[in-house]
Design goal:
The chain is α/β, with parallel strands linked by helices. It is built from 28 helices and 40 strands. A 7-stranded mixed beta sheet has the order 15-14-28-27-26-16-17, sandwiched between helices. The protein has a 6-stranded mixed beta sheet with strand order 34-36-35-40-33-37. It is globular and about 90 Å long. The structure holds ligand MGD (2 copies) and molybdenum atom. Residues 366, 370, 564-565 line the site of molybdenum atom. One ligand MGD is lined by residues 233, 370, 403-406, 409-411, 431-434, 436, 450-451, 453, 526-529, 564-565, 806, 808-809, 811, 813-815, 906. Keywords: 4Fe-4S, Iron, Iron-sulfur, Metal-binding, Oxidoreductase, Repeat. InterPro entries: 2Fe-2S_ferredoxin-like_sf (IPR036010), 2Fe-2S_ferredoxin-type (IPR001041), 4Fe4S_Fe-S-bd (IPR017896), 4Fe4S_Fe_S_CS (IPR017900), Asp_de-COase-like_dom_sf (IPR009010), CT_Formate-Dh_H (IPR041925), Formate_Dh-H_N (IPR041924), Formate_DH_asu (IPR006478). Residues 1-80 form the 2Fe-2S ferredoxin-type domain.
Amino acid sequence: MIRFTLDGREVQAREDETIWEVAKREGTLIPHLCHKDAPGYRSDGNCRACMVEIEGERVLAPSCIRKPADGMVVNSQSTRAETSRRLVMELLLADQPEREMAHDRSSHLWDMADAQGVVTSRFPTLEVERIPLLDDSHVAMRVNLDACIQCNLCVRACREVQVNDVIGMGGRGHDAFPVFDFDDPMGDSTCVACGECVQACPTGALMPAILDAEERGDSRDFDREVQSVCPFCGVGCQVSLKIKGDRVTHVDGINGPANEGRLCVKGRFGFDYIHHPHRLTVPLIRRSDAPPKGLDVDPANPWTHFREANWQEALDLAANGLARLDATHGGQSVAGFGSAKCTNEEAYLFQKLIRQRFGHNNVDHCTRLCHASSVAALMENVGSAAVTATFNEIENADVAIVIGANPVENHPVAATFFKQFAKRGGKLIVMDPRGQALKRHATHMLQFRPGADVAMLNAIMATIVEEGLYDQQYIDAWTENWEAEKAHLAQFAPEKMAEHCGIPAETLRQVARDFATARAGMIFWGMGVSQHIHGTDNSRCLISLALMCGHVGRPGTGLHPLRGQNNVQGASDAGLIPMFLPDYQTVTDDAVRARFSEIWGSGDFSAQRGLTVTEILDAVHEGTIRGMYILGENPAMSDPDVTHAREALAKLDHLVVQDIFLTETANYADVILPAAAFYEKAGTVTNTNRQVQIARAAVRPPGQALPDWQITVELARRLGLDWQYTDPSEVYTEMARGMRSLDNITWDRLVNDGAVTYPSLSPSDPGQAIVFGDGFPRAEGRARFTPAAIIPPDEVPDSEFPMVMTTGRQLEHWHTGSMTRRSRVLDAVEPEANCSLHPATLRRLGVEAGGMVRLITRRGEITIMARADRAVAEDMVFVPFAYVEAAANVLTNPALDPYGKIPEFKFAAVRVEPAGVMAAE
Ligand SMILES: Nc1nc2c(c(=O)[nH]1)N[C@H]1C(S)=C(S)[C@@H](COP(=O)(O)OP(=O)(O)OC[C@H]3O[C@@H](n4cnc5c(=O)[nH]c(N)nc54)[C@H](O)[C@@H]3O)O[C@H]1N2
Ligand SMILES: Nc1nc2c(c(=O)[nH]1)N[C@H]1C(S)=C(S)[C@@H](COP(=O)(O)OP(=O)(O)OC[C@H]3O[C@@H](n4cnc5c(=O)[nH]c(N)nc54)[C@H](O)[C@@H]3O)O[C@H]1N2
Ligand SMILES: [Mo]
C-alpha cells in the first residue's frame, strides 16, 4: 500500500492504481476524456483533461496515467489545475460543432464541460476547409470526424479491447484522425461492427446511426434503462437496454462477468427483431379450408392459412388436441421440443409438462444438434457436462487449443479474450479445416482434413506418450484407464497419421510439445468437433489430451466446449433432455424419479430414456408420435435432411407451435401461440461459463403475446395439471429444490447480484470459475481415458458426389434466420443466401465470384450465390444454414453419432454445378 495526500487528506493506493482511480474511489471525479473508466481500457494520458498538481513538480501531471508515490502531495482542486483543465476543454470545444448542433448533445464531452462550468470557447473555431467530411457509409454507425478530439479511445477499443485492428490514426498533429483500414469509408472497411468504438467515443464522433438522425442526436434521449442479458449466443453478455416509449432505442455492453463491457454486432445492433412487424401478436388457428400442410404452398405468405383467435379458443384447441391423442393413442403419441432460447424456468416447465402429463421422456431440444456428443463424452469421462473453467480463464493460460470452433463469428466476445491472449504472447493453436479468422492470431494453424480429428488428436497424444511429456503424477492421482489409452495410442504415430489428417508429422509433434510442456493449457471446442458420427470420439480425444497433460482444475487450464444458444447450458441443466432430469440425474434411476415425483406432487413416469430430436421425427414418420408441442425451435430449418423433417411435421395430427414469428415450423402448425421475446420477459439463463444470470423484462410484448412460461402454465392447466405458478421466481425456487448445482443461488441473490457462477459454495461465494481441482464427480473422484479409433465420415465423396459440403454459421445471422433476417442492420450487412468456395474451384466450375451454383447431395439440391474464399479447401464448399430460400439442411446427412445422437452436419458428399448457365449443346 502506498500512502499519499490527496486534496489535503491522507489516502492509500494499491501499487497498480493511478491518482485518477484513487480520487474516484475517494469520491472525486477528476474530469477525463481520453481515459475510459471501464475494464480493458489502457489509460493513455494524451488529452490533458485530467491534469492535477503535485507538490514539488514544475508541470501538472495527467492523473489517469500517473501513479502516486509514498508521501506525494497531490492537489486535484488547485486553481492552477482547474484553470488548466478548463483551458483544455475550451480548446477542444472550439473545434466542436455547437452543442445545439452536436451529433450527441449528451456526450461525455459535454458532461465534462458542464462539470467544469465550461459553456463556450474563447478560441477561434476550426477553419471551414479543415473540418473533416462526415462518413455515413456504414448501416449501423456514423463517423463524424468534426467531433473528433483525437483522444485515441476508438483505436484502443478496436485494437486492444476487441482486437479487430481496423481503426488506426492517420494524418499528423492537429489533423490526425481515425482511419479505417487504409483510409476506406467505414462501410467499405473490414469493420465487423462490434460497435466498441461507438461505446468508447466520448464525443459522438462515432455514433450509432439511429441516434444521429439528421446529424444531430442525443444519446440520453430515452425514458428508462433496463439491464438484461443478450439473447443470442452462449457467451451471455450483459447489456443495458435504453428504452423510449415501448421501444428499445439502443444497447450498451455492461460489466458482466463474461463480457466485461464488450458486445458484438448482434448484441449491439441486432436487438430490433423484437420490434419487427412480422411479430406474432395474436393466437392463430389453421383455417379449415387451408391447403394440405407443406412449405411449398405459399412460402411468401403463410399467414393466409391461419385465422386469428382469442387466447381462450387457441389454448383450448391446443390442449384438447394433445389430450385427445393421449386418450386414444396413449401419452407416447405426444412429444415436445423445448427451447434453448428461453429461460431456465421455461425449459424446466416444458420438460415437467411432458413428463408429468404424458408420462414419458420424449422431450428434447436443439442441444441434440449441438453439443450432445460433447455432453456424452464429458458425462462418461469427467462426470459432468459443463465447462471445467470459464473462457475468461484463458487470461491465466500460456497455451490454448481452439478446435472446430469459429469464435470470431460465433462467440465474438469470447474471441476478443482469445485474441488478447495471443497478443500477450500466449500460444494459440487453431485446428480447423477452414482457414478461419483466428488463423491470423495463431502460433500453429492446423488446417487439417475434415472429419480427421481423431487421427490428428491421437497422433498428438501418441507424441506426448512417446516423448514422455505426460503428467504421470496427475494421471496417477486423478484418472483411470491410462494404461489402455497409452497402449491404444501406440498405433497412431504422427508419421503414420500425417497423410490421414493432412498435417506434417513434425507439426503434430511440435503442437504436442507446446501443449504438453505448457504450465497451463486450455481446450476450447465447437461444432466442428461435435457434429460428426464420431463426435463423441472427437470429444473423448480432447478430454484425454487435457487429462494426460494435467491441464484441468488449475488456473488457466480446462475443458471448455463453447456452448451455443444463450441458454443451452441452462435448458440442459433444467432437464430438457430425454435421458436426464434436472442436473443430469438419469431418468432410469427410480430414486431420482421418486424425488421429482415428490417435488411435483405427482405419480411416477416412464423409466425409459426418451427419444431424441431426430428420433422423434422418425417416430412421426412411423406413426407412433402423432402430436407435438414445439416451443422456440425451428426444426423445419435446423434439422438435418429437412425435407424428411418437414414431411414429419406435415404428417402430425396435431401440432402446437409457440414462437415469436410465423416460422417455417409454425407454417405446419394447427395452433400458433404468440410468445413474448427475450427482452419482454423475466427469468434466469445460464451461459457457457456456468454463470446463472438474471434477465429482466424491458419492454411490453406486442399485442396479446405472453411470456412463454405463462403460456405453458395455461396449457398445463387445460391438460388437467394443478399448476399455480404466478411468477418465474416460484418456478426457479421449485427447480432449485431438485438441483444441487443451484445450491446457494437464490432468486433474490440473482436479482441483487445479476450473476452467480455455479457451483457456489456459500451464500456469498460468487461461484467457482474453475472446478475439479480436487477430483471429479465420478467413480472414486477419477476422470477416465476412453480410447478412440478412427471412423470415416458416413458419406465419403465418390464420382457422383465428388466434393465435401460442410455447414455452419456467419457472424450476422442466427441459425434459421428467424430473428436476424428481421434485424435491419444484420440483414443489411448479410442479405443474401451464400456459400463459399475456393477461387480455384470457382474457376474450374467456370463461375464468377457472386455467380450462382447448384449444390446437390443425395437428399436434395439448392441454388445459391457463391463467394470466393481462400479459407475453404479446394474440394470443399461451406454453406451457412440461415437462409430459407437456399436451405442448407435440404442437403445435410442425418446419419447419427451412436452416443450423442447428433447428426453429421459437418460432412456430406456433394456435387457443385454452375447454375444459371444453360448446359452446353
Ligand atoms: N453468429 C452466430 N453465432 C452463433 C450461432 C449462430 O447461428 N450465428 N449459433 C450458436 C450456436 S447454437 C452454436 S452451437 C455455436 C457454434 O459455433 P461454432 O462451433 O464455432 O460453429 P460452426 O460455424 O458450425 O463450426 C465451427 C467450425 O468447425 C469447423 N469444422 C468443419 N468441419 C470440421 C471438422 O471435421 N473438424 C473440425 N475440427 N472442425 C471442423 C468449421 O470450419 C468451423 O470453422 O455458435 C453460436 N453462436
Ligand atoms: N446444417 C446445419 N444445421 C444445424 C447446425 C449446423 O451447424 N449446420 N447446427 C445445429 C445447432 S448447433 C443448433 S443449436 C440448432 C439450432 O436450431 P433451432 O433452435 O431450431 O434454431 P433457431 O433459429 O435458433 O430457433 C429458435 C427459434 O426460437 C424462436 N424464438 C426466439 N426467441 C424466442 C422466445 O423468447 N420465445 C419463443 N417461444 N421463441 C423464441 C425463434 O424465432 C426461432 O424460431 O441448429 C442445428 N442445425
Ligand atoms: Mo448449437
